[in-house]
Design goal:
Chain lengths: 305, 339, 301
């Protein structure tokens, strides 16, 4: 178990490193930070000056090492637009995205797990059909469009929810649903498939032969086993949601990391973009790492060996 | 002696794409306290479904019907799922074929043993634990107390089956059904487990229904035997009768397939039954074994061949029924002439 | 033995249907597959014959005819069955031309990611060992990078055009191909026919091309459909944010973006292109699910 978690940790560090290299190279190969920094209306000399002064004329490798060494010390540079350290900007915006992500995942789990269980208990019935239909529709709905439709319906037709901003909890309702909705089909399908498999397993027959109450059989013996793969998937989905927050936060004007990313892209704010991609990636890596550990903890076959 | 469990004319039908599969076609038997009943037959003859039907654990698509089905005198057909779950595990236990997959991988042995007693007898955790240790020792598991904290994957198949047996004994049931409990185990372990079951049956004075295709096993532990073929009982009776005077050609064929110490001559050829089990989809008229039977005649195709007593039995408690158009004497003669 | 043994056996039961016949029969019996295939076919026809089918020119503006509602609306008319946008361009024409862009981007991005992902996945699954380790690491790294964010950043820096969107998406979404092909290849690799091909001295390339690929084809097709849908959704999102297809091209995502400022009082301006995206993605997903059910009915659940 210890060796396993250490090994996984090593891989996590390596992946983080690889993401940082790729992001750095990708951004620097796609655009010119000197030009972005000099701003619009800058002359060729201005740009050359910036390039010289900030070292953008050095080889990419040297620039990367320079950036990496500073990043290790928590210095991700300074936002050229906001003129404050990138780490501070991100720290200030992160809570909003964290709330959004957590509530979106909660919403997705609260809907999709019971639905998946119900569908699995009564396969090929009306419940199952409804669940599958929701899954199929959910997978085909563009997130941003779904968000806009909700805005029209709840914000304008019913006038019960605010359509933009992040001052009250009501502001988070629609964004969470919009973001969570996209994760539902996958979680629902996996729960259903897992439950169908577990419910037809020999040990569930044993549990029933022991005369246990139906709810004990269902929750203690079946769900506990079916839920193990769902844990990993939820972690992955939460990671995807952070990536997807850029669309949702932009639409609902939530001032979180997604919104920051969107604005930084428009401003060609290199250091912020880089730090954002890296921090979202790191968070994803951390999530999957924690999910693996939780899996190992839930499954005695991994835990006790 | 009154029957612990009694079923009359049990049928199990399963709808399949090509029609209705009549998996069990009107069987009747009873299980007594303190007695071992062996149900014998090839794979697919309906013996496992019969055992599941007794526990009301059939797959949801299967349709169960019976003229009479009682457990300790109560009509089981009228039981709700709730009443049924009160009986399962507490008065009627079941041991399955696959010890490797029959225990929940996520919970410790102790948890899986004790939860039964807590559920059925309102026992405290400590009481349940004590009983679990006692029973684990009874089924021959050493260091029982420390085993409670182990998980199924840490135990071998033989040990897991012992745990299963201990589990089903937790609530001191009146009847245990064991569905091919040793098929998935190593040959060396098989005998141990069976003898253990037979021993426990005597010690706890339970009824035991042992479902198997292994006649060697039957010979060692059975008090009474029912031979099933294609969803019907073709021969039933006390063990001694069945082994000494096998009457139905199918039973004769089955016995011919295994060597019996002291009976089968050294170097003698073992028999084999040619052909395959008929499809159970649709109605079978006449004797279901006739296509594989070397004594078959036109009479065998006529419907209405009933299970009838073998004539000439006078001793008390000795029973012997068979289902064949030939007379019992003729059947026995056939066998003699064949050997 | 059964009651009707006297009857002559049905000829169909003597001649077993061929695998292809079975497959076709199952395909036509599969509702989802038929609906998905049907919608996709209509979309393909729309894309291919756009100039013939569309009543107007997709770029023709008519500022006198701005934001006309669709025909089912009180103020709608058959002159513009789906109404017009804020520049007076005919909506149904732009929807029909939009199918071209969605399908073009969807299929091209899928092809790029498919080639890349399959190559990596098959290599990882076939060679195992170090190769597998490196490729698995690549997959993990790729999964850790947020697709939309990276795509937006790169497109924003490079400047957006159809080609750039296709390449960026194609180079980003190969992960599922790699994951599925890797495990499929791992399974096939241990099969006896691969071992015997190796024993016969076939070259690695030959084994991969003639033994491995044909046997992972079903899984490949299923992933391919899912990735077309994925790419269509991503393109719509990029265009919606203004970093995908550029105006005045009639991309559905862009149409939603352009209609956004009018959506509260004229909701159809976003409802119509959104429905088009939804239907296309739904159709492709249904087709993919259907193909999976039909080719591997045993893995239904």
């Amino acid at each position: 178990m210890l060796i396993y978690s250490l090994k996984r940790f090593g891989v996590a560090i390596l992946v983080t490193f690889a993401v940082s290299v790729i992001t750095f190279v990708l951004l620097h190969a796609s655009g010119d930070p000197a030009m972005a920094m000099a701003g619009e209306g800058a002359t060729q000399e201005d740009i050359e000056y910036v390039r010289e002064h900030f070292g953008f004329n050095r080889p990419m490798l040297v620039q990367y090492i320079d950036w990496f060494v500073r990043a290790l010390q928590g210095d991700f540079g300074i936002s050229i637009y906001l003129k404050i350290p990138v780490a501070e900007v991100i720290a200030a915006k992160a809570p909003i995205t964290a709330i959004l992500g957590a509530s979106a995942l909660t919403f997705a789990l609260l809907i999709s797990i019971p639905l998946g269980v119900l569908a699995a208990m009564k396969p090929n019935t009306i419940f199952d059909r409804i669940a599958l239909t929701i899954a199929v529709i959910g997978q085909a709905m563009p997130t941003f469009w779904f968000a806009l439709l909700m805005m029209i319906f709840f914000g304008i037709t019913l006038r019960i929810l605010p359509v933009s901003g992040n001052t009250t909890w009501q502001h988070f309702v629609m964004p969470s649903i919009a973001l969570g909705y996209y994760a539902m089909p996958a979680i629902m399908r996996l729960t259903r498939a897992g439950m169908i498999e577990v419910l037809s397993s020999d040990y569930i027959r044993t549990a029933r032969a022991k005369g246990l109450r139906p709810r004990t059989v269902l929750f203690k013996h079946a769900l506990r086993n079916a839920i193990i793969p769902v844990v990993s998937l939820s972690a992955v989905q939460l990671g995807f949601m952070l990536g997807g927050s850029i669309i949702i936060e932009t639409i609902f004007s939530l001032k979180g990391l997604g919104n920051l990313a969107w604005q930084s892209i428009q401003r060609s704010d290199f250091d912020v973009m880089q730090a954002l991609v890296l921090s979202i990636a790191m968070f994803y890596i951390l999530l999957t790492y924690l999910a693996d550990l939780l899996n190992a903890f839930l499954d005695p076959r991994i835990r006790v060996s | 002696m009154t029957a612990l469990f009694e079923v009359k004319n049990l049928t199990i039908d399963i709808p399949v794409p090509s029609g209705m599969l009549h998996a069990v076609r009107g069987i009747s038997f009873e299980a007594m306290r303190g007695e071992t009943l062996c149900i014998v037959g090839e794979s697919g003859c309906g013996k496992s479904l019969t055992s599941l039907a007794m526990m009301d654990l059939l797959p949801t698509t299967a349709i169960r019907n019976a003229e009479k089905m009682t457990f300790q005198g109560q009509d089981m057909r009228s039981f709700s799922e709730h009443q049924m779950s009160d009986i399962r595990g507490s008065q009627m236990g079941m041991i399955f074929q696959e010890p490797m997959t029959s225990l929940n991988p996520s919970y410790s042995i102790g948890d899986q043993l004790t939860e039964m007693l807590i559920r059925h007898k309102n026992a405290s955790r400590a009481e349940a634990r004590e009983r679990a240790i006692y029973l684990l020792e009874k089924v021959g598991i050493t260091a029982a107390a420390s085993r409670l904290n182990q998980y199924p994957h840490q135990l071998s198949g033989g040990l897991r089956q012992r745990v299963m047996i201990a589990m089903m004994l937790m609530c001191d049931p009146a009847l245990i059904i064991a569905d091919e409990p040793t098929t998935a185990l190593d040959v060396t372990i098989q005998a141990q487990i069976l003898l253990l079951l037979a021993e426990l049956q005597k010690e706890f004075d339970m009824g035991l229904i042992l479902i198997t295709h292994d006649l060697g096993v039957v010979a060692r532990v059975a008090d009474r035997v029912a031979v099933m073929y294609a969803g019907e009982i073709v021969e039933a009776g006390t063990a001694e009768e069945i082994f000494n005077r096998p009457t139905h050609p199918y039973t004769q064929g089955l016995l011919d397939c295994i060597p019996i110490p002291g009976k089968t001559a050294r170097g003698a050829k073992l028999g084999a039954i040619p052909g395959i089990v008929p499809s159970l989809v649709g109605v079978i008229e006449g004797c279901s074994f006739r296509e594989r039977c070397k004594y078959a005649s036109d009479a065998c195709a006529k419907p209405g061949i009933e299970l009838v007593p073998v004539s000439g039995i006078v001793e008390e408690h000795v029973t012997h029924d068979y289902r064949c158009v030939l007379s019992a004497d003729q059947c026995v003669e056939n066998l003699a002439g064949n050997a | 033995m059964t009651v009707n043994t006297s009857k002559l056996p049905d000829p169909a039961t003597i001649l077993e249907p061929s695998p292809t016949q079975l497959l076709t029969r199952r395909a036509f019996g599969h509702t989802g597959l038929m609906i998905g295939g049907g919608i996709l076919l209509i979309m393909l026809i729309m894309a291919l014959f756009a100039p013939i089918l569309a009543p107007f020119d997709p770029y023709d503006q008519d500022l006198a005819q701005r934001l006309i509602p669709p025909v089912w609306h009180d103020k709608g008319s058959w002159g513009h069955p789906l109404g017009t946008d804020n520049l007076g361009r005919d909506y149904i024409t732009r929807i029909i031309y939009g199918a071209r862009i969605s399908l073009l981007i969807g299929f091209s991005a899928m092809l790029i990611s498919g080639v890349l992902g399959t190559a990596l996945g098959v290599a990882a699954g076939y060679f195992g060992g170090r190769v597998d380790m490196v490729i698995t690491f690549l997959i993990t790294t790729r999964l850790a990078m947020p697709v939309i964010l990276v795509a937006l950043a790169v497109v924003a820096l490079l400047g957006s055009s159809l080609q750039i969107v296709i390449w960026v998406l194609g180079l980003l979404i190969w992960d599922r191909f790699a994951v599925v092909m890797r495990s499929a290849t791992q399974q096939i690799r241990t099969m006896d026919y691969v071992t015997s091909a190796r024993a016969l001295g076939c070259s690695t390339l030959r084994i991969i091309l003639s033994e491995i690929l044909p046997n992972v084809a079903n899984a490949l097709i299923v992933v391919a459909t899912l990735e077309v849908a994925h790419a269509v959704l991503l393109e719509a999102a990029l265009s919606f944010l203004g970093l995908g297809v550029q105006p005045p091209e009639p991309s559905w995502g862009l149409m939603i973006s352009e209609g956004k400022s009018h959506m509260f009082f004229k909701p159809w301006v976003i409802a119509i292109p959104g429905t088009a995206i939804f239907l296309l993605v739904l159709a492709i997903n249904l087709l993919g699910d259907g193909i999976r059910d039909v080719t591997a009915p045993e893995n239904r659940n």
